[in-house]
Amino acid sequence: MRALLLLLAALAAVAVAQKDPHWVDGRNTIVHLFEWKFSDIAAECERFLGPMGYAGVQTSPVNEYLALPNNSPSRPWWERYQPVSYKIISRSGDESAFADMVRRCNNVGVRIYVDVVFNDMCATWSNPVGYGGDVPDPANKYYPAVSYSSENFHSTCSVNNYNDANNVRNCELSGLHDLDQSQSYVRGKIVDYLNTLVSHGVAGFRVDAAKHMWPADLEAIYAAVNDLSTDFFPSGTRPFFYQEVIDQTGTEAVKSSEYTGFGVVTEFKYGSMLSNAFKGNNPIHWLVNWGTAWGLLDSDSALAFIDNHDNQRGSGGGGDILTYKTAKLYKMAISFMLAWPYGITRVMSSYYFTNNDAGPPADGSGNILDVTINSDNTCGNGWVCEHRWRQIYSMVAFKNTVAGTSVTNWWDNGNQQIAFGRGNAGFIAFNDQYNTDFKQTLQTGLSQGTYCDVMSGSKSNGACTGKSVTVNGDGTAYIEILSSEDDGVLAIHSGSKL
């Protein structure tokens, strides 16, 4: 019995360790640099993400995938989710460039999390070829570069009944040939791939389509992956796993809770509910108890985000999400996410699109364009770079500053205006009423002095480039957010004090 208890305790410890993103102290937000090249990610870690206090980067899938016909800028983003092999070769770069990126980002305190796709292999296409030149035979479920043959896949059927867990997990999603992860051979190939990524220094993985794989199979795969590289992490450090499980209603056969025992889960309800609130469909004063009281996962098991590469295109967990296209409301939702103590937070960094299938900015040969940086620190060449918006990177700094504090001094007007503090380290206010000004004297919890509002500007050379707030000796301050202002948020923290 004692041996069994020790084993169970060890397994529980491993499960907890796999929920640790291994951030450098003082950092706690991930950014998804969607479709970026490895060389651009490395440069961004050094010139911006590290200095601005970002904790990590989620990359797009790095393995070889199907190069769809017509090698042109019209190639869709979702071709990355059509695996051909587990070789590190993609439009983002080769294995050497990947290793260089991981090393350079780790060296400036920014962790790398790879989006890994191993629920399936590519669907059947005419004359298929991988980006690295490998030629699969998907019609016969034969992928020689792995190698997988038809016996390694589930029988052909389509995912069409989300009330049947067997259908969801054993059938083909969008025609992608569904691997049988219960086979030790298949698990071994997947683990080999993840171990290759670990050997280069990644901190963890975003597991695509986890909902479509059996929890016991995933738990076994995760447990078999090596500890993280001691070049960058302490000996015995387990990889961080966060899993894509879309469970918006809680009424389907597959539940998010089935996956929280051995990793973090993407909490899709988070973004849809906050988007709904800041769009004015629910008064934001109800956010006073935001979190598990709203039916969300426990905080330590949740990956919190507003939009991702799927749902900002109207699929993969919701079609009514705030995105960069609704900038004022989007910045408000992101600001609330980064101000409120819940979950592991991730922000999106996009490229401009009008067609939901559109791939990243590219030249006439399909080569992804460089992420260029304008004189005002925004991005060019078709890249949105929300993570470079002042309001978002300033809230990343806010979140870093208030880490470990609780929510204090909540105030609301019973409708669409709210404010709250984070201990004695920060204070934030929101005006989500389009035709009403926010003018209140409120308790901030901060020490006496003058603070720069980090939404409208910054602290520079002993002065504020935007609005300032004077906190009185009793901690109160006059807070004003006009409905005509570009931003519906005001935020101050101990680091913005003059």
Q: Pairing-aware structural class of the strands and helices?
A: alpha/beta
Radius of gyration: 23 Å
Number of discrete helical segments:
9
Strand order of the largest sheet: 1-2-6-9-10-11-12-13
Mean pLDDT: 94
Oligomer: single chain
Largest sheet: 8 strands, parallel, barrel
Shape: globular
Beta-strand fraction estimate: 15-25%
Features:
alpha/beta; single chain; 4-stranded antiparallel β-sheet
Describe the fold and architecture.
With 498 residues, this protein is an alpha/beta fold. It contains 9 helices and 23 strands. The protein has helices at residues 2-17, 38-52, 95-107, 165-170, 184-199, 215-224, 268-278, 327-339, 390-402; strands at 29-33, 56-59, 63-65, 83-90, 93-94, 111-116, 120-121, 177-178, 204-207, 240-243, 264-266, 302-304, 344-349, 407-412, 417-422, 426-431, 438-443, 449-452, 459-460, 463-464, 468-471, 476-481, 489-493. The strands form 7 sheets. Strands 1-2-6-9-10-11-12-13 form an 8-stranded parallel barrel, surrounded by 5 helices. Strand 19 (459-460) and strand 20 form a beta hairpin. It is globular and about 70 Å long. Residues 408-497 form the Alpha-amylase C-terminal domain. It comes from Gryllus longicercus. Residues 1-17 form the signal peptide. Residues 28-399 form the Glycosyl hydrolase family 13 catalytic domain.
